[in-house]
Amino acid sequence: MSIFSKQSKIQQEIERVSVPAVADVYMPSAEEEYLKAYNFRKKLTAFSLAAVIAAEGIIAGGMMSVANKNNLPQRVLREHEIRRTEQIDIQTGSYSGETDFGYFFGDGDFSFNSGATYSGEWSENAYSGLGELKTPSEGTYTGEFSGFSKSGSGTFSWDDGTSYSGEWKNDCMDGQGKYTDPKGVVYSGTFKENAFESGECTFSNNTGDYTLVYKAGGIDSADIIFADGTTYKGSTDEHGLNGIGEMIFPSGDNYSGSLKNGIRNGQGVYSWSAGDSYDGVWDADQMSGTGTYTYKDGSVLQGTFIDNLFSDGTYHTTNDFGEYLFNFVNGEANAVAIILPDGTQFAGEIKDGSLNGAAQIKYSNGDTYEGNVVNAVKSGQGTYRWTSGASYDGAWENDQMSGRGTYKYPSNEDGFKLVGEFKNGVPEGDCKYYVNASTYYDTTWSNGKCTKVTE
């Protein structure tokens, strides 16, 4: 086999590069389902909170009339009423329980005309301490109150199955807590004024299991196990997988790098389970830009890729025939540098898929050649220098001195140079034999032997 035989197969190796699309492996519907779930939760949360605030605002407004300062006659009348009937009726409902000279104070129950009820601790006509507030068609809050407001630790269970358990402030979810909606979406972390500030949101659907990490009120990263076994861990936002992350596929392939809307975009590394890898720029889920593709056997493509095809750069490979470094332009190899097992070094042009054009060769014995080659052999004009000091500069054909040229003798031999015709590697025909730089004889040669000398 020729030492250059592998070169013709390089384009085939490039074309076999196959890059699985991320969307094909992890199902595009994952992002859609995530967005649907997110929007549902956002809508549900906004509705629930707005309804609760509105309903409780009505209740609190009615109770404020109770908290207003009452004059002594009113307090006397109320104290007398509860001792006689065991309850106090006011415009918004009725109270039964402990009092402090007409004030609601201690443990007591209040039934609103609207159907809402409160049972728990009171202080100066206001919810204060532990209690339970039930709001019709909304839900139930059990926990701490301060001045009619949910403040402290408590749990609100909405009638639709939504619940929040954690810290409250001024009737708002505020502090550490856990919010769960009917679909099983769970927010666990820090809330501020009814908004999720930081922590984790977890949920599952038919596309997989999701854990979203929130920071400063927005989605920062995700840990996802898709239904097909693909996993993702890294940056994201409310629009999808955006930023830096790592994706591991069921095949064993792995991608680590930049993503845009769930597909590879920017700098990233893809490693195939078969052993190949690509480290470089991606565009629209394809190798496009500057990068390095490394084969399992250690061969390396380095340079510019366009739509998964190698365009410009170098290809380095080592095999039983030697070490090769090819240069590519527009997807075609145009030059190569080779080191053979015996130490011979070759550097030259590639045309028409073979070694054609200018070349430089350094042989293992120290001889050198600089000139033209055709199909990897010396043909055309070129200069060969022997380690003995001899040299030939002239025409070549089929690796032999053939045509007009100049042969210079080494310093340890008689003669200075021979100028004339050569054939099959030896002088043939008329030649000028120089004994020094200016003195020569006309000679005739046949099969490398001088047959005639003319002074």
What does this 3D model show about the protein?
The chain has a 33-stranded antiparallel sheet. By secondary structure, it is mainly beta. The chain contains 4 helices and 33 strands.
How is the main sheet built? 33 strands, antiparallel
Mean pLDDT over the full residue set: 84
The share of residues in extended strands comes to: over 45%
Regarding quaternary structure, what we see is single chain
Share of helical residues: 10-25%
**Number of helical elements:** 4
Cα-based radius of gyration, to the nearest Å: 45 Å
Spans where pLDDT lies below 50 across 5 or more residues: 1-70
Overall shape: it is rod-shaped
Question: Main attributes?
Answer:
disordered N terminus; 455 residues; single chain; 33-stranded antiparallel sheet; 4 helices; mainly beta; 14% helix
In terms of topology, how is this protein built?
Layout: H1 10-15, H2 22-26, H3 29-67, H4 72-85, E1 88-90, E2 93-100, E3 103-112, E4 117-123, E5 126-135, E6 139-146, E7 149-158, E8 163-169, E9 172-180, E10 186-192, E11 195-205, E12 208-215, E13 218-226, E14 231-235, E15 243-248, E16 254-260, E17 263-271, E18 277-283, E19 286-294, E20 300-306, E21 309-319, E22 322-329, E23 332-339, E24 345-351, E25 354-362, E26 368-374, E27 377-385, E28 391-397, E29 400-408, E30 417-423, E31 426-434, E32 440-446, E33 449-454
Antiparallel strand pairs: 1-2, 2-3, 3-4, 4-5, 5-6, 6-7, 7-8, 8-9, 9-10, 10-11, 11-12, 12-13, 13-14, 14-15, 15-16, 16-17, 17-18, 18-19, 19-20, 20-21, 21-22, 22-23, 23-24, 24-25, 25-26, 26-27, 27-28, 28-29, 29-30, 30-31, 31-32, 32-33
